[in-house]
Amino acid sequence: MPNDEGLRATGVTVRLGGLTAVDGVGLEAPPGTVTGLVGTGGAGKTTLLDVITGLRRPAVGTVHLDGADLTSCAAHERARHGMARTFQRPEAFGSLTVQENVLVAAELHTARQRRRRDARRSAAILADSLLERVGITAYAGRRAGTVPMGVARLMELARALAAEPRLLLLDEPWAGLPVPTARSLECLLRDLAAEGLAVLFTENDLDLVMGVCDVLYVLDAGKVISHGPPARVRSDPRVRRLRPGRAERLS
């Protein structure tokens, strides 16, 4: 029977040609917790998210969500099990407004749960509430292809939340955000976790995420070299001894 243990990835290995991009990685993201996956470019963070969300099959390893083995499930099946994700480069319907982009996601979700008339009404209410929650109501009527990158990221976050997921995966969500908006996003992620959501995000900069995470994993050359509470990870000699080319954004 499914339970509420959140995400558990075990022994995930991905080989790309002759390169091992992810090497035996194990990772957990429990409900009510903000989990960070930190590493420089090329460390394997996005590849690991691709495996978790079903966009890439691992050579070996398993992915479970709330006790259900999703290793062989396609991406859309994992979404139905409660996964939602954002990407490094926001994906949007550029000709639609910001509000319409979120509304499409909300309608897809509510249509599975309610009668058509009720679904449309509920989707509109949900979309508007999410625009307000992520702080971009002022951009609701703007075409998605014309808004700043930071707004596009928050729009994609709103679309992900429209699915009312149990696991939220964010790929470098702070990229392109001004400092005040970045701080607001930190508070939002903490609030979402407090409501019982499992949150997992990737980031390059360890300092940036010290105050938002409950647990940190540091990935280097496809391997987890340290994990645990942020303060302990930051002081870990294995993290501090990263060679200069990889450590410049982790110190």
Description of the structure:
It comes from Actinomadura fulvescens. It holds the Pfam family ABC_tran. One of its GO terms (molecular function) is ATP binding. Keywords: ATP-binding, Nucleotide-binding, Transport. Residues 7-246 form the ABC transporter domain. There is one protein chain. The protein is of the alpha/beta class. It has two domains: 1-82 and 166-251, Rossmann fold, CATH 3.40.50; 92-164, no CATH class. It is built from ten helices and ten strands. The strands form two sheets. The protein has a six-stranded mixed sheet with strand order 6-7-8-3-9-10, sandwiched between helices. A hairpin with a 2-residue loop joins strand 1 (7-16) and strand 2 (19-29). Helix 3 (98-111) crosses helix 4, helix 3 (98-111) runs parallel beside helix 5 (149-162) and helix 4 packs across helix 5 (149-162). The protein is globular. Mean pLDDT is 90; it is low at 243-251.
